[in-house]
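The instructor's notes for this session suggest beginning with a concrete chain rather than abstract definitions. Hand out the sequence below and ask the class to guess, before any prediction is shown, which regions might be ordered.
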Amino acid sequence: MDQYGQLLSLAIIGVAFYLIMIRPQQKRQKEHQALMASLQVGDRIVTIGGVYGTIASIDDGRVAVEVSTGVVVEFDRAAIARRLEA
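After discussion, reveal the predicted structure:
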């Protein structure tokens, strides 16, 4: 009977670990992938490094971001943290 209690405790810890750690990370990853797929030229964005700018062009893996008038910097697409609302 004691073995079943230990097995049940281990199962509860496993479920708690999944609910607290793994599931939220998967949700954030799906949201980030949806953001990457929905980016368009002209969107205001923030990179993971804190650079604010406007998307000037988008290639397969790169995004050209205009950070100031006439200053265009290229970033990896995954470096975009979020899109700013107008």
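Then share the key points. The chain is about 45% helix and 35% strand. The CA atoms of residues 17 and 23 lie 9 Å apart.
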